[in-house]
Each structure stands twice: as structure tokens, then as C-alpha cells.
Amino acid sequence: MPEGEEPYTIVWDTENECILYIDQTLLPGRYEQMRCATVDDLARAIRRLEIRGAPALGIAGAMGVALAAVRSRETDLERFLDEVGRAGDLLKGTRPTAVNLAWGIDRVQRKMALTASVAEAKSIAVAEANAIAEEDELTCRRLGGFGEELFPEKCTVLTHCNAGALACRCWGTALGTIRSAIAAGKDVRVIACETRPLNQGSRLTCWELARDGVDVTLIPDSSAAYLMRKGKIDLVVVGADRITQDAVFNKIGTYMHAVTAHHHRIPFYVAAPASTFDLSRREADVTVEERDRSELAYCGDVQLVPDDVNVLNYAFDATPLGLVDAIVTEIGVLRPPYTESFRLLGKNRENRP
Length: 353
Ligand SMILES: CSC[C@@H](O)[C@@H](O)C(=O)COP(=O)(O)O
Prior knowledge:
CATH class of the largest domain: Alpha Beta
Strand content: 15-25%
Pfam family, one: IF-2B
Number of domains: 2
Number of strands: 15
Bound molecules: 5-S-methyl-1-O-phosphono-5-thio-D-ribulose
EC number: 5.3.1.23
CATH superfamily of the largest domain: Translation initiation factor eif-2b, domain 2
InterPro entries: IF-2B-related, IF-M1Pi, IF_2B-like_C, Initiation_fac_2B_a/b/d, M1Pi_N, NagB/RpiA_transferase-like
Protein name: Putative methylthioribose-1-phosphate isomerase
Radius of gyration: 20 Å
CATH architecture of the largest domain: 3-Layer(aba) Sandwich
Structural class: alpha/beta
Family: Belongs to the EIF-2B alpha/beta/delta subunits family. MtnA subfamily.
CATH topology of the largest domain: Rossmann fold
Strand order of the largest sheet: 6-5-4-7-10-14-15
Order of helices and strands: EEEHHHHHEHEHEHEEEHEHEEEEEH
Shape: globular
């Protein structure tokens, strides 16, 4: 990282062989870099959403494998790889819907499996995790460049959750398209949905856009439909946690925006890297993460629901592809019919690591 610049969301600390990350649960009140030196610490940080957002989870998973590797005292290669494999499985279980986490873990483990010694496997693990992090920045900037072409010269864009710099190494996916449109001289205003119950929209999206001087306005999630009806939204752009053959998984509430945008004939776009595609699966094959009742039942120390009432807290929903007007990737903009676009994307991925 160039001196004087802000830290990336998540980086490998070469000197101390550990992970440094911005704790996203503290924002917007505190902007603090934390250290994570064990796989158990990393698993806890991911479960608590201190590290979150699909591409950032991909980097975290990759660095988690590197962490397990450098901390291991095992000298036999086979037993060493087994130990690192168990660490990978533990990390995969922390967030089952966001496919980038498993993707990052598998990619580093595949490279390690080709090595001839423990020492070589350790250095390959660190190198591959760093490569994934560096590629993420290039990917977001490329994706942003393709995405900005979808923006009119002057527009108001609605986004949900946080698919920004904090959800990646930097720049962002959905917010990357917004940043690229602004960098191209377009006049873009952003409407950020608060994203109940954990408020990634108000806490993170508003924080990072306001800091960049972007014109951003916060709304409750429930205002989106009315603003669309009043003609106040020109397009919607969101990120993704997993894209299957038939649906886009993203933060709970995304489907609601897609249906409403479709009703009002407002373009609904998804921005996601190729690593978020899971084209061997369909919507029905994917486990949607359910989170603790406390996230809905409390606001800080204040109880919001009686103890004996059931709470259902899905972290994500799935939007059928029929509601998605385009998917912006680092390879280009995919348009319906997606069967053909996905075939080309799959071919392109075969030629990459
Ligand atoms: C570029 S990140 C895209 C998604 O990961 C984002 O929109 C999202 O749903 C994140 O959910 P979270 O539960 O905060 O990890």
C-alpha cells in the first residue's frame, strides 16, 4: 500500500504473518484496523460481520488458509494439508451463502496441493492469498468501467446494503460502478437503503460515499417503492453474494427492490465479479444463512419484541434472473438471455486461475 494512503479493507501483514482488517461493526463511529492472528479469531470476525461483503470474504478465506498454513507446526506434507483443509472447512461454515468465501479458500488450497514440501506450500499459500487480494482491486476497477456505461449523464441511483470499498479490497462492485460513473464526469446522486437489521446501508454505504464527497441520501428500506413511483429513481444497482443458473443471492430486501423496479420499469442491475458466479447450482441448492434473533429483537440494549415471539432473520434473498436487466462483471456487461452470457463467462473462467 502506498505510504500515506488509507489501509485496504483487508491485508496480509507480511512482517507479523497475520491479517489486518477494518472492523466494520465499529463504523461509522470508529474507523479502526484490527489484527487477526489465528483461524479461530478470523472465524469469529467473519461470523460477527467485522469482515463482510462477498469479495472481502473471498480475500479473508484465502488469507485464512494462509494463516492456518504459516501457524502450522506439522512437518509431514500430507498431514499438514489435512490440517489446513480442516481450517478451510471451519471457515467455509461461518457464512454459507456468500460463495466467494469458499472460492477463495478452494483456490489457495488447490495451489498448495501442487507443492512438494511444507515450506513451499506455506509460501505458495501466502503468495496466492495476496494475489487474490490484488486481483480484487483490478477486478473492481474493470467492472466499474463497464458498469458506468449503464449510467445516464445525470441520474439518481438506488442501492441496497454495502457493495462498496468495505465489501472488497477497495473501490467496490455496485459502488464501484457509481465511483466510476462519477470519475467519468457523470452527475450521480445515490439513494442508500438503510438495510435492516444490521444497517450496512446507513452505517457503511453512507459512510464511505459521504467521505468521498458523493451526494448520498439515506432512506428506510420501506421508502424505496414510493420513491420509484414518484419517479425519483433512475436505476438500481446492487452487489451479489452468489449468482446461480437462475437467481442472484444478495442481502435480504434485494428481491423486494427488484420486483418494485420491474413494476415501475426502472432498470435493475447487479454488479459482481466472476468469482461470485456458481453456475453449477440453482437457487434451490443454496442454503440461505439465518442469523440470530438478537439482531432483530434488540436495538443496542433496547428490547424490540417480546421474548416469546418467534423471529425469522434471513441474511439474504434470491432474485430470479428474469428481474435482472444486466449483470456487470470485470469481463463485460452480461445481458439476458443469461444462458448464453453464462456460457461465455464459464469459458472465460476456464482460462483463469
Ligand atoms: C460487493 S458485496 C455484495 C454483497 O456481499 C452485499 O451486497 C451483501 O449482501 C453483504 O451482506 P453481509 O451480510 O453484510 O455480508
